[in-house]
């Protein structure tokens, strides 16, 4: 953006020749202002530079980790392992179902065996001790 002025070069040159009574004060105040603010500004600049270097380092590290993760995600070995996990999980579910079924059948058989044993004992008692 350009600033245009209607001041002729003669006026500008004349203003340099005019003795400004505040010129020395302005220079002194400017120098003091710079002396007061320069150290914190240089310190801030130093901290910003360190921060930028740290950010660049973290960015590079994050980028490399993303590349590694991307390679792993697209790995055929990983996909085959996941497929095996699915197959083994289904097999495990079927085995659990079979075990539950066998457990239920064994409980029924135990009950039946106890009944048969009771009936056999009752029959033996009848045979050994006939009613009179």
Automatic annotation (TrEMBL):
InterPro entries: Snapin/Pallidin/Snn1. Pfam families: Snapin_Pallidin (PF14712). GO terms for cellular component: BLOC-1 complex; transport vesicle. This is Biogenesis of lysosome-related organelles complex 1 subunit 6. It comes from Rhynchophorus ferrugineus (Red palm weevil).
